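Supplementary Note 3. Input sequence used for the single-chain structure prediction.
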Amino acid sequence: MTQFIFCVCVILCLSSYSAMSQTFNESSVAEIYEEWMIQYERSYANDIEKEKRLKIFKENLEYIEKFNNNANKNYKLGLNQFSDLTKDEFIASYTGLNTYFNISRQTSFSSNIEPSKVYHIPRSIDWREKGAVTNVRTQGACGSCWASAGLGAVEGYIKIKTGKLVSFSVQELVDCTKIGCDGAYVIDGYKYIIANHGIATEESYPYTEVVGTCQHNKTRTTQISRYITVPPNDEQQLLRAVSKQPVATHISVNGDWSAYKEGVFTGPCGTNLIHAVTIVGYGATKEGIRYWVIKNSWGPNWGEGGFMRIQRGISDKRGLCGMAMWPTYPY
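The predicted structure, written as discrete structure tokens, is reproduced below.
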């Protein structure tokens, strides 16, 4: 039976935790932990479980301190709502491996493959600045990243085409496909919109984080005719596509993703595609580090306002975290 891509959930940075240059003793860790529990409204079934989570929290706190004190890193980590989970628990609980469909062995995924053409590519672009990116979503415990990522690309395309920025309904895709919160592929969302001649707005069909009854009576306000697959494993072609509109892609994540706070993420993270995001721009730092800008679905307090900068132009043709393996966009 096909197992689909799951998604990772919302992550926040603890405001009271700003610097970690000290050596933590038991009392200071306990104090930070209690503050963290209050901020994230965390409670446990019993004291044994609480003590277990405190130990993990302390290990994560020390890991973040050590990581952030490494001057060779281009990004920073911070505490978040997953700080009482081990990395293995985080990966096991909030991601899922598709063992049936081996993406790395595919050369194409639809009949609509973007042809390679000579095209002027701007040095940088940010679709947020052009008003083509809606607010960051919070997927919660529902594995709906595939829907959020695909709709991010659809919303950008519709804004560029019509001049109107509208947030479309993730919940409709969750309720009205057989996939729901169990994870899927971005193209499943495109196919649904094409087959049903559009999709409802977020306002008329709001997100609930659980699978509900499909509401077919909602007014459909947009339409796409097809979707395009960017030539796999070609960051230059991906750059070309993103210069024209936001693009959805599948991506690999590791334990450090859960605590990402700021900067250009440089890996390592492998190519096990278990998450989906929307690429909404690209650029370079003043130091010359080239990056993609991705919109995630873990809430606006994760990362850089809900976004991440991730390194581009690496030697691996698949891109960092498999960014270039399976990017698609609506048309």
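The helical segments are 26-39, 47-68, 87-94, 145-162, 170-176, 186-195, 235-242. The first helix runs from residue 26 to 39.
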